[in-house]
UniProtKB/TrEMBL annotation:
Source lineage: Bacteria, Bacillati, Actinomycetota, Actinomycetes, Micrococcales
Record-given protein name: Uncharacterized protein YdhG (YjbR/CyaY superfamily)
Gene3D superfamilies: 3.90.1150.200
InterPro entries from the UniProt entry: YdhG-like
One Pfam family cited in the UniProt record for this chain: DUF1801
Domain YdhG-like, chain residue ranges per copy: 16-105
Amino acid sequence: MREIDAYIAAAPPVARERLEVVRAVLRRRIPTGIESFRYGMPAVMIDARHGLHYAAWAKHLALYPVYRGDESYETLVGPYRAKTDAVHFPHAQPLPLDVVEAIAAALAARAPRAAGTAG
């Protein structure tokens, strides 16, 4: 998507690499997701209502919405929650790939199964 490519290219260098990593994780973990550009930020949508947006801000990278999960999920994700259903990863700290992977996996689990797919 040109809009997403342009958004990432325009980001400051500290955020650009993080955006590219998050995009790659989402593409890999949510292969049926559709990349889109909504509300001025990149997103991966699994249907018309459910998806994950990601954005670079001056001091952090954010993911929205990050739904609540079980206790083990919240133990992993909870330290990064900033507001209701949002997580922030400060640029001054390493990007926690395990957390990004867990968030992407949780979203992928919400994806509707393809018609005729055994599960």
